[in-house]
Write a structure and sequence with these properties.
Strand content: 5-15%
GO molecular function: acetylglucosaminyltransferase activity
Largest sheet: 8 strands, mixed
Strand order of the largest sheet: 1-4-3-2-5-8-7-9
Protein name: MGAT4 conserved region domain-containing protein
Bound molecules: 2-acetamido-2-deoxy-beta-D-glucopyranose
Keywords: Membrane, Transmembrane, Transmembrane helix
Pfam families: MGAT4_cons
Order of helices and strands: HHHHEEHHEHHEHEEHEEHHHEE
Oligomer: single chain
């Protein structure tokens, strides 16, 4: 009997190894979202799993109902991968993954943000935080969610061309791993329906596959925009325009936050370079793998374009925008948040800049280029162009 033991162990070892291989293969075949065609190293995959776990932990802490769905959907697969990759998972999440389900979770999306202090008109109307969903296939658990706010313009509207560029410059793998959310930030139902129909007609494949979603704010979401404080010496029109824009950004981010690992905000008048999705994702995962700190990865340059942030960090930005929506334009608030996070007030301006650059990491190349000349603020002309777009002739 004694002689047989090592042999038995050996075969058991072979059996377990084969079983693991088959399990991993099975996962790769059965779940295309995790099965990237490109040679994703184990490290990358591990980093990505850690992101998902972190995201789930956060949702769990927030008692977000979404986590139940995720676990029901991915529970068994996640459990196997976590085991295979030997990742440590918080005990709470682990027991959830075993049970696949948990009772008693509050399922009230977005109610975990403390917005009511700053937007008191929402106090007894939490429903106003839920946008109208004009089209959704319920896609979630993607790597990158792209948020695109759009408003009615007096001059040209470039939205459709922009969306075509975003979709065309992703291949199938990238499309399957992304979600594009267009928010038509208008309360005129006739207009939002019309534009939504146009998007559905012009981009039917992206809409039908679930890659593209369309939402619009509930009219009750906005406070009285005629009654804002005039700030920074700006005209009333300008204050209203930038304050509403801040509220639009915050709502879009709130909607997108639970749907993927990373969030990237874009605008409605851009063209994208090919492979932007996988390049962004690789850059983020590489930084995480190298344990380099970052808060924003910047693939765009101007304004809010192409700023990538972890979904788990997004609540900070959302709260910050909501707190100061009436005080400054969104891109200044982003500066302010990063400055607050990074800078030592007793040190020089230069050391502040270095500290900021450390967590707001600018990519050497802009992945997006402006198409439009007309800003969404009536009469404002937008002539800024990214000078490091990969194709200089555009
Ligand atoms: C899409 O592009 C990525 C990155 O370049 C590549 O790894 C992947 O194989 C491509 N997928 C398809 C279906 O062509
Ligand atoms: C799993 O990781 C832990 C530390 O993270 C390590 O101590 C342990 O040996 C690993 N197990 C296997 C089977 O690799
Ligand atoms: C950015 O850096 C990468 C390599 O790090 C290089 O291949 C690429 O050409 C650079 N792009 C620009 C616009 O400098």
């Amino acid at each position: 009997m004694r002689f047989h033991r090592p042999k038995f162990c050996f075969w058991l070892f072979i059996f377990i190894t084969l079983l693991s291989c088959f399990t991993v293969m099975f996962i790769f075949i059965s779940d295309t979202r995790i099965a990237y065609d490109h040679p994703l190293t184990k490290t990358y995959m591990k980093m990505e799993m850690e992101k998902i776990i972190e995201h789930m932990t956060r949702l769990y802490e927030l008692k977000d109902g979404e986590i139940q769905e995720i676990i029901e959907h991915f529970g068994p697969i996640l459990k196997t991968i976590v085991k295979t990759l030997n990742i440590t998972v918080p005990e709470d999440i682990e027991s959830l993954m075993v049970a696949y389900k948990s009772a008693g979770m509050v399922s009230a999306p977005m109610s975990h943000f403390d917005l009511f202090t700053f937007l008191p008109h929402l106090w007894s109307h939490e429903d106003f935080l839920k946008p109208f969903i004009l089209h959704s296939r319920g896609r979630n658990e993607v790597s990158i969610v792209f948020g695109i706010p759009t408003v009615r313009r007096q001059k040209r509207n470039y939205l459709i061309q922009t969306l075509i560029s975003f979709v065309k410059n992703m291949n199938q793998t990238e499309q399957d791993d992304s979600l594009i959310v267009v928010m038509i930030a208008e309360v005129d139902l006739e207009y939002t329906r019309q534009l939504s129909e146009e998007i559905k007609n012009r981009l039917s494949d992206a809409v039908n596959s679930g890659l593209l979603e369309i939402i619009a704010p509930s009219p009750g979401y906005y406070p009285d925009l005629k009654n804002l404080r005039l700030t920074l010496g700006d005209s009333e029109d300008r204050v209203r325009w930038r304050s509403k824009q801040n509220l639009d950004f915050a709502l879009l981010m709130m909607y997108c936050q639970p749907k993927g690992s990373f969030y990237v905000q874009l605008e409605d008048d851009l063209i994208a370079r090919p492979q932007y999705q996988s390049l962004m994702k690789q850059t983020a995962l590489q930084r995480i793998a190298d344990e380099q700190e970052w808060f924003i990865l910047d693939f765009g340059g101007l304004g809010f374009i192409g700023k990538m942030i972890r979904s788990s960090d997004l609540p900070w930005l959302i709260q910050f925008i909501i707190m100061f929506y009436n005080d400054k334009p969104g891109d200044w608030l982003l500066e302010g948040l990063v400055q607050t996070k990074a800078c030592h007030l007793g040190r020089s301006r230069k050391s502040c800049k270095n500290a900021k650059d450390g967590i707001w990491v600018k990519h050497n190349e802009s992945f997006f280029q402006h198409m439009g000349t007309w800003s969404s603020l009536a009469g404002k002309i937008q002539l800024l162009k990214a000078n490091n777009f990969y194709n200089k002739s555009i």
